[in-house]
Design goal:
alpha+beta; globular; binds adenosine-5'-triphosphate; binds magnesium ion; Dna Ligase, domain 1
């Protein structure tokens, strides 16, 4: 079996490290090569039997949908979710509508299309205004958290203008933050140790959530605690709902979900259907380590979950 590790062309240092490390891991057991997602992709990829997909910058608007769509058309099997599931996760409003329908806890929300604004809000509550189709905390600053109509309108306008997207307004959950990672499929779906993101060591005055500033400039002062310091009941609840989300969104092989916890209540914020796999740095890598899995084992486990899934589909 000849495996292609498909990656984007314009990638940063961390992503390059990820591509290189995935290649190292897979080459220990399989015949594999790196294949960039470029203009010659369609003709090149036909020479491979299986794809480990790392492309999440496919197009201008829809990111990780492109490679799975092409592979589906060509009949080449690949790791992670298909374009349908990626699309459901790419837009947080859509993901939240589905979560709500299935009684999966998510912060209450409303959204405003371009040019639309609220005329009144409950000023006793705290909200966060976000772009629904971004990632890596783009568009999220300390000013995204608002508690009056005027500030909310300002933030909504900013999202419309900067991202040309509707603005998602959610109840702000003041609590602790965790991330839940899953590997496998169906009966072999496994929840990795839950990762807690502890913002308590950040300098005074800085926001206690993953704003763009915190995510990109204060990584070293953010503590990652794995397994998270949560009760058995909360852990059980997180695992139950994370598996339910994986199922209702038809996710495949691996995924990661961000959650805020306030008291005994959990709130799923978003689902990452193609989370990054950077050694040491990425959340999933940290979770795998806490489960006693080396990086190479994690990558091979994802690959072999995908291979097994296709074999079972053929039965
Ligand atoms: N409703 C909320 N209540 C409290 N904090 C929130 C809420 N929504 C978002 N946040 C904070 O903002 C961060 C980024 O939000 P979110 O995960 O929705 O965006 P993202 O850009 O897709 O993130 P990622 O970097 O994981 O791709 C969260 O990790 C969390 O710290
Ligand atoms: Mg997130």
């Amino acid at each position: 079996m000849k495996i292609a590790i498909v990656h984007d062309l314009n990638i940063n240092n961390e992503e390059s490290k990820m591509v290189e490390s995935v290649n190292n891991a897979i080459s220990k057991k399989y015949n594999c090569e790196l294949v960039p997602f470029d203009d010659n992709f369609v003709s090149k990829i036909k020479n491979y039997d299986f794809v480990f997909n790392l492309s999440n910058k496919g197009g201008r608007e829809t990111k990780q949908l492109h490679v799975p769509s092409i592979l589906d058309k060509l009949g080449i099997p690949y790791t992670a979710s298909n374009a349908y599931s990626h699309a459901l996760c790419l837009d947080k409003i859509t993901t939240k509508i589905i979560m709500k329908f299935h009684n999966i806890p998510t912060p209450s929300f409303i959204y405003f299309d371009i040019g639309e604004f609220p005329d009144k809000i409950d000023e006793n509550k705290v909200y966060i205004v976000k772009p629904p189709r971004e990632g890596s905390a783009r568009g999220i600053t300390r000013k995204s958290v608002v508690n009056n109509l005027e500030d909310m309108k300002k933030q909504i306008k900013k999202i419309h203008k900067e991202f040309k997207q509707p603005a998602l307004v959610e109840e702000f959950i003041d609590g602790i933050e965790v991330s839940v990672g899953l590997i496998g499929n169906a009966d072999n779906l496994e929840v990795l140790p839950i990762l807690e993101i502890d913002f308590s060591n950040l300098p005074k005055g800085l926001e206690r959530f993953y704003s763009f500033e915190v995510k990109h400039n204060y990584g070293e002062l953010t503590n990652y605690v794995c397994p998270a310091r949560i009760s058995y009941e909360i852990k059980e609840k997180l695992e139950f709902y994370a598996k339910k989300i994986f199922k209702v969104l038809s996710l495949k092989d691996y995924a990661r979900m961000d959650v805020r916890i306030r008291g005994d209540e959990i709130y799923f914020i978003e689902v990452n259907s193609l989370p990054q796999l950077v050694p040491v740095y990425s959340d999933i890598t940290k979770m795998a380590k806490a489960a006693g899995m080396e990086y190479d084992d994690l990558i091979l486990k994802i690959l072999e979950s995908a291979i097994k899934r296709y074999k079972e589909e053929e039965k």
